[in-house]
Amino acid sequence: MNLYLVRHATALSEFDDPLRGLSAEGLADIETVAGIVAGSGAKPKRIVQSGKKRAAETAEVLARHLRFTGTIELGDGLEPMDIADTWLDRIDSLNEDLMLVGHLPYMGKLASLLLTGNKERHFIEFATATVLCLKRGGRGAWYIGWMLTPENNQAVAHGSTLNGCSIPGDE
């Protein structure tokens, strides 16, 4: 099973948009990242987003690039300050690929919890428009398949490696 953890793309300020939709930069970033993710062969069976406008718009761009034919779901427990444990049991009971689109610090805590068992052990930096692909291995252990950010998408486009991680399209 693959689990795709996504932090929303850059949003407008509350002054410019009280609901904080994506900025032009954020939209451009997630369009580029989503194109590369689609090229990796990612095929989530479900896409779940937090309900905030910036997460919903990020999920919509990813769904379009992935040619996702399902309905993007509104999920509880994906807000910035929600408890990471909320999705742990849900994920453990799944066998189909899942994409969760949310916020910091939540995404970092969920990744840490899955990878180390400790949600406070932060070691993954989730820039905006980041997609982290976690793979479930034997005995339910999770490991990093790849991670894509707006900053490293140029390296991927030119065939470079990302610190030894498999790159979408190289598998």
Please specify the SSE layout and strand pairing.
Layout: E1 2-7, H1 24-39, E2 46-49, H2 53-66, E3 73-74, H3 85-92, E4 98-102, H4 106-116, E5 131-136, E6 142-148, H5 153-157
Parallel strand pairs: 1-4, 2-3, 2-4
Antiparallel strand pairs: 1-5, 5-6
Helix pairs in contact: 1-2
Under CATH at level 1, the class stands as Alpha Beta
What shape does the CA trace take? globular
Low-confidence region ranges: 157-167
The strand count comes to 6
**What is the averaged pLDDT score?**
88
Question: What is the fourth-level CATH superfamily?
Answer: Phosphoglycerate mutase-like
Number of helices: 5
Explained architecture:
With 171 residues, this protein is α/β, with parallel strands linked by helices. It has a single domain, classed as Rossmann fold, CATH 3.40.50. The protein is 32% helix and 18% strand. The chain has five helices and six strands. α2 links the parallel β2 and β3. Residues 157-167 have low confidence and may be disordered.
